[in-house]
Amino acid sequence: MTLFDKLQxxxxxxxxxxxxxxxxxxxxxxLPSWDSLGQVNLIMAIEQTFDLAIEVEDFARxxxxxxxxxxxxxxxxx
Amino acid sequence: MARSRFNFDALLGLDDRASLRDELARWQPTLSLPEVNRLxxxxxxxxxxxxxxxxxxxxxxxxxxxxxxLTLEAALQGFAIETFHAPYGLALQEASPGSAxxxxxxxxxxxxxxxxxLHPDLSRPITGLxxxxxxxxxxxxxxxxxxxxxxxxxxxxxxxxxxxxxxxxPPTLGLFDAQAEQSESxxxxxxxxxxxxxxRAHCPATLLIDLDDIAAQVGRSRFLDRRYxxxxxxxxxxxxxxxxxxxxxxxxxxxxxxxxxVIVLDADNTLWGGVVGEDGLDGIALGPEFPGSxxxxxxxxxxxxxxxxxxxxxxxxxxxxxxxEVLRDHPHQLLRAEHFAARRVNWQPKPDNLIELAAELNLGxxxxxxxxxxxxxxxxxxxxxxxxxxxQTPARPVEVATCLDHVARLEVLSLTREDxxxxxxxxxxxxxxxxxxxxxxxxxxxxxLAQLDMKMTVTLQPRRHLxxxxxxxxxxxxxxxxxxxxxxxxxxxxLGSGDWLxxxxxxxxxxxxxxxxxxxxxxxxxxRRAELDTFLMSCRVIGRExxxxxxxALLRELAAAGFEEVVADYLPTGKNGLVKDFLPSxxxxxxxxxxxxxxxxxxxxREASDFPIEITWNRPEAGSPPEGSxxxx
Lengths: 78, 633
Prior knowledge:
By secondary structure, chain A is an all-alpha fold. Chain A is built from 3 helices and no strands. Chain A has helices spanning 3-15, 36-50, 65-74. The longest helix of chain A is centred in the middle third of the chain and has 15 residues, at 36-50. In chain B, 41% of the residues are buried. Classes of the chains: A mainly alpha, B alpha/beta. The A-B interface holds A 9-10, 13-14, 36-37, 40-41, 44-45, 47-49, 54-56, 59 and B 32-35, 37-38, 62, 64-65, 68, 226-228, 230-232, 234, 238.
C-alpha cells in the first residue's frame, strides 16, 4: 500500500465518502463532510494512522491532499 | 486465546458481539480513529441485526467528535444510533414541547456540561473564598443544575445521563490541595455528592455519569488532549471518548434488554481453581497465595454484585457433599451456603438444571447469567437456552476477578431496599416452602397460612416507593395482568395525578418482611367507573392469598369512594399464563369486547376478615418526597 493509498483510505473512512472521491487534487472545500469538525476528525485519524503527533499550529494548513502529503514528507514519510 | 498481545486484526475475525466486547475489555486497547471506524463497521455487520436507538446530546463543548466512539460502542451493544446534537451551548429552548430535541424522541439524552455552566465563579480559583461564600456558591450551583436538568426532565427525553467535565488542570493548590483547608478537590467532591443527592430525591430516570471516575480509570494525562481542547473545544482523548461512550451504551443496554436478576455460578475453576472432587478440600486453589488469591478476589466481586440486587445461584457438576464441604469448611471461601438463593449440584445436564433453578426461583431464564469455565457447558447452554447470557470464566486466574465488570446487563440504574435484601428474601421463601411441604393437605395449607401470621401494609399514592414501583412494572412478567412497563418519569406522573389510584403493598410474616411486592393502578373515570390499568405482584409472595386480599381491599376502597364498576383486562404475553383465570376468580365477568368487569355494589365484595392477612393502611401525606436510592425506607 503506497502512502497515497493509505491517505486516501484514511480520508475516505473519516469523511465518509467513497474512496475514489479522494484524488491527489482533493481540497477541503470539495467535500461537504470536510468541515471544521471533519478537519479535527481527520487530524486525529492522520495522527493515528501514521503514528504522528501533529502540532496544533499545523492543524489549519492541512486542508488538501497535497498539503497533507507535503506535511507527511516533512515528517520523513513518503 | 493463548495470545499474549492485543491484535486488532484478530478482532475483525470474531463474529459475535459478546466476544468482541470481551476482547476489548480484556486488552483495554487505545484504538485509533480509523480502527474505531473499521471495528464499528464490523460490529454492525454481524448477526443479529442492529436495533435502533435514539440519542440526543446537550452540550456546552464540542460533542460531534464523540460520534465515532458512540457509534462503535452502540454497535458492540447491538444498536444502530441516530444522534441529535442540540445547538452548542445550554440549549434550554430544546427543553420545551415540540423542540427539535423532543421531536427526535430520544431513548437517551446525554448532557455534557462544564462546571462553569453552573456558576461563572467556577471558571476562577475558589480557594480564596470564605466558608460561607463557598456554601452559598455550592447551593447556587445546585439550584442552577436543578433548574437546567429539571427542565429537560419535564419533557419526554428518555433516560437523562448527566456529566460534568472535571477540571482540565491539577488543583489550584497543587500538591498541597489534598491537605489544605481550602481544598478545591474536596469542595468539588462535596458538590458532586449534593448533586447526586438532589438527583436521587427529585429527578427520576436521571443518572450522573461520573467523568471523574473515567479520568481515574484512563488516567488524567490520557483523559484530555489539550490540542483538541484549544483548537476544537473537544476535551476527550481517545481512551476517554471510548470509555464515556461505553458507559453511555451500557445504560442503553440496561434499559432495552431484559433485566438480569440471577448470576448462576459454576464451582470448579470458577469459584476456586482446580476440581474439588479430585483435588479435595485442601487441594483446590483458594486463599492468600496465587492462584488461589485470584478466586478469593472474584468471590469478593460476586458479593459486590449481590449488593447491586443480583441473586447468586450455583450450578455445578459435582458430588453435592464435596461442594457443601467447601462452602462450610474452607477457611478462605467467602461465599457460604446462605449467599446462594438456590443450588443445583449434581450430574444432570446444565440446561436441565437451569430450567429447574428458574422454576425454583420463579424467574424467567432470560434473567439468568451463567458463569462457567467449560467450553462444552457454555456451548450446550447457548445452544439449548439462547435466552441465558453465558459468560465463560477466563482460563487465566488473573483475569477471573474482572470477568463480569464489563457485562452491561449487570449494571443497575437505581437501588431499592428490596434489592439489598434480595438473597435474604429468597432464603425466607425457602423456609416457607419447607413449612408448607410438611402440610399434608389443603386443610394443612390453610393452617400453614394462618401460622405465617401475615401482615399487609397497603400504601396509597406511594410516592416514596417511586423507584421500586417503576422497577416492578419493568421486572414482573408472570403475575402481571397487563405487563405495561412504566419508567420512573411516567410513574411519577401517575402518582401525582388525581385521575389515578395507585396502591402498593408489602407483606410481613413470621419469617420476615417482603418489602414492596405488589402494585395496582386504577384510572378513575368521571362515570363512576374505574379501569384497572395495572395489577401485578412479585412471584415471591404467590400462594399466600395476598393478591386477593390486596385487590378486594382496593375494591372496597373504590366502592366507599362512590365507584360502581371496575373494568379490567388480561393481556396475554406468553409469560403471564399464571393470571389467565385471575379476574374470573375474583368475581369479574367476561364482556363481549374481550374485557372483564365487575360491579362494586353487587354482593360478594369480600371483607378483610375473609383473608388470613391483617391489613394496615398507609394514606398519602402531602409533599412526601419519592424514595431515592438510599437504603432507608
